[in-house]
Design goal:
Layout: H1 2-7, E1 9-12, H2 20-47, E2 92-96, H3 102-112, E3 123-126, H4 138-141, H5 148-153, E4 177-181, H6 186-193, E5 195-201, E6 208-214, E7 218-224, H7 235-242, E8 250-254, H8 267-279, H9 292-304, E9 306-307, E10 312-313, H10 315-332, E11 333-334, E12 341-342, E13 345-346, H11 369-377, H12 380-396, H13 412-418, H14 420-427, H15 431-435, H16 448-452, H17 458-463, H18 465-468, H19 470-475, H20 478-491, H21 510-523
Parallel strand pairs: 1-8, 1-11, 2-4, 2-7, 3-4, 7-8
Antiparallel strand pairs: 5-6, 9-10, 12-13
Amino acid sequence: MTTSRLHGGGFVADDMGLGKTLSFLAYMVVERQLSCLWQQVNRSRALKNNQHLPQAGQAKDAQCPSPRKPGWIVCPCADSSPTKNYAPKAGLRMACVPAALVRSWWEQWKTHVDTTTPELGLNIVVDHRGAFDFNTSSEDLSFRSDSGRSTTRTAAERYKKKDGKGDDAAKPYQDGFLILTTKETFPAWVKKYHTYEGLVRVDGKDEWKKGSRVQLVFGIAMIDESHEEAMRGKGRAKILLDLPKVNAPFLWGYSGTPFSMTPRGLEGVLWAIEKHTQANGEQHSNYPELSCSTLNKICQDFANQKDLKEKTINDDAIDAVLKRFKPFLTTFVIRRDQQSKWFGHSLIKINLHIHQDIRLKQVHPIYTPQELIDFEAGFQEEKDAMLLKLQQKFDAEKDTRSSNVRPTKLPFNTMCREQWRLSLLATFPYLLKLATAEDEKVRMTLTEAEALGLRGSDNKEKDSGYYKHIKSIVESSPKALWLYDFIHGLDAQRDVNGDEQKLVMVTQFPQVAFILKLVSILTL
């Protein structure tokens, strides 16, 4: 709430699993509480009914005379209250999330948000038909964005003067409404239900022209997984940018992984914040020191800190750039990790557990380092094709490129992904013999498609090289042998609570999953 009012918005970059979705829902609820409390305070002061403190003449330690409601934030009527200087933010709330997460967001709303308090009047409007299935109740269907209730209740109060040179206004209850939407569905919903012809304001000026007005007022808007589409004016960041600029909504990006290879991960949301505040003749604090143009220069300098002649990274120069970037993080980003404390306790409760690091060594290697080098060299054409595509994209996007350095090799992360065969061989060394076999009937590609093509057919599984050579594959793998002993030992134990042990194995390789499946079947 503080960051919103100081800077117009920002980022929540908590570690994954710490409840960013629930945090936003809680933020929406307490902002609604703030609005309701201010309405009560202003009404009480006008009536002078002593239910709340007057604006002037308060004692130094005065407290609100009305009892505090359980679960509500502190009343802003007292000078000592931390909410006294928080003006309420009128207008709808919006969460623009990936389509695959709409259902999850809706379920979290239904599970955690108490909508039974008439005073708060909390509601959700789901702008994504795929979130509803044939088992959905009629009550839930009323929350669809195309229902009559949703379209009328979310519409703002139209400007009523005949000259038409004024902004529509949010209705008092609308800061209790959450619009749950996606970048694909939101523009169509706005255009179909909430536009009308009239006069529109020219951004940043007290001038008006004919155009389509959007009969919506937003007070708070966020985009989930903001790192996926961080570039200015694109994807979900564009949804923030295109929101009606009435009331300069607080804009937020939520992501557990907000940065990838450059500081540009902040750009999309920061650009929208900047445009919304400037459209109303304002500027977010610390402007222009922490402006989008300053961030863009930092990103370009970060990308260009490479000695092209020596092809080495200048670490001192990189550190200098990151030092300039740090104020953006400390100003706009809120972050908590697994060790963060909340009222003296960790954010999540972890059951008692035993952790053990295991390091294994191949006692009798079945291949030499040179064999691995020769094997991987056979796939250089794949990497060359990827690099060529990257260079062609660089040459074609002169005006939008984020760096002026033409790529001469694949990025580190991409290179690691392309050498996935080495990751497989590190776990199952015998696969090298199958991948380099001279006999085409024996030779295997080790690809994901090869493993996935075996699904659903017992005959295909038994005819595969994985099945025929499973003994050699497993017996030459220290990891597989250790895992076999570990599972059998686990079967004889109970956990710290006396319950049956559970084992979860996670892999990004279907090939590994298939081998482990064969091991479990053949050893039962």
